[in-house]
Amino acid sequence: MKILGFNPSHHGSVCLLKDGELKFFIQEERIGNREKYSSYPFKSFINLLQNNKIDSITWGTPCLFYPLNKANDTKSYWVELSEKFYPTINSKDFSYENHHLCHAAHSFYNSGFKESIGVIIDGVGSKFVDKNTKEELGQETETIFKCSYPHTFFPLYKNITTYKNFEINLSRVYETISMHLGWSRDEAGKTMGLAPYGKYNLNIPNFFIDNVGNPKVFYTDFSLSKTLPDQDQTFIDEENNPQLKLQRDPREWHYNESKITDLEKDLAWKVQNDTQQLVGDYIEKTIYDTGLKQVCCAGGYFLNCVTNYYLLKRFPDIEFYFEPIANDAGTSIGAAKLVWHTHTQSTTIRPFKSLYLGKQYSKEELLEGIKKYI
Question: What are φ and ψ of residue 335, in 5° steps?
Fold first, then answer.
């Protein structure tokens, strides 16, 4: 059985699962327009359809800014495209309220654990809607599962970021500080890299109160909704926190390190310190409540290797698996594995062994490529 999994949103990706084994995975940015974080992986999607006998397709990402259907059409255009090759193909949509589930499935099935805690932390995940009023309640931001075979993912905790009283969650706080420092929210890794150069600063207030961004420090400007995506509408309240206002455009020191100030270094240190401690607190409570000693981690936040190392030191008796494809690209794999284990009820454990999942090259092709640089 061959399953094609894909993620049509940012970090667009496709994967091929054959009888439960991951045979191929690639992000569209590698072969499409070579633009980072590319969405809509049509080129790689069509390539898999053309060169493989696909039995089922599946996807698992929120469709907030990435519509899956044509206007007034109930059938996904990805399904329509697949049916051009295979008129009776099976399809499974995990995009509704299951974004974190796909992250959890991806990390758990790759971990090699028989059962585990699954911790998912990212910017925002699936929308949640009141089933009676149909009112949009918000989006998932942090979720903790109890995971076991063949396909049990029981939610122990879920944080929903609300729309009415917009709360800035853990990852959004990190992104907001990154943007304050002159980067995009997708460049939070640069904030992580700057953090070790900073230190505790008495003038920087706590970034979190009751597990959400401190409303006296952060705010959201909804008036910018027509010009900025909602993830970019969060800011530091400089009027009430003038000590956090930067003295120059931070992009000046991006190219001239002599212009960086202690405040910028200390902001990076603070957001790294506060978020990793909060993540550790989530995990500590869940370990205590469940008694489990294995923890799988996924979602974009867990690309933060400094936090991952902090967790290893804080919990020396706990066995961790940090998913290397932790961002949304990995949801294509999670969705495909969910279909496989649900369909077959398989309990076969397949630990992830290699990241070499893309296109393969012959010796001749490699030598030809090397010649270009000789």
Answer: -65, -45
